[in-house]
Amino acid sequence: MEYVIFVAALVGVLAILMLMGYLDYKREEKRFIRRLYEEYGVLPQREYKWEEFQNISHYFLKVFMWMISHGMTLIWTNCLCR
User: Fold this and answer.
1) What's 70's DSSP letter?
2) What angle do CA 77, 78, 80 make, to 5 degrees?
3) Residues 29 and 21 sit within 8 Å (Cβ to Cβ)
4) What digits encode the pLDDT tens for the residues 13-65?
5) How many CA within 13 A on the CB side of residue 23?
6) Better-scored residue on pLDDT, 10 or 43
7) How far apart are CA 64 and CA 60, in angstroms?
8) Contact yes or no for 39/48 (Cβ under 8 A)
């Protein structure tokens, strides 16, 4: 009979530890999401058109090509331009 009580107590302790771990995980997850919103703000609800994405990529390529020094090989940048 003592073994049954010992096993029941052991299962109870394990269940309590698992519950505490789950609650701690949820609390940390909420804290992480709150910190993301504080640091980066909320996501915009605006939907971007395909043409706007093309303009952004061309701006990136123009700025990126300007940043490359003369001694570097440009083979891999040809892949970006296609």
Assistant:
1) T
2) 65
3) no
4) 999 999 999 999 999 999 999 998 888 887 777 777 777 666 666 666 655 55
5) 6
6) 10
7) 6
8) no
Look up residue 57 and give its two tokens. Answer: 């990529």
**77 contacts: CB under 8 Å, gap ≥ 6:** 64, 65, 68
Between 7 and 76, residue with greater pLDDT: 7
The pLDDT assigned to 47 comes to 77
Q: What is the dihedral of CA 73, 78, 80, 82, to 10 degrees?
A: 180
Check: CB of residue 77 under 8 Å from CB of residue 65: yes
Residue 48 tokens, joined: 């971007």
Contact predicate 80/58, CB 8 Å: no
- Residue 7 CA to its chain's centroid (Å): 41
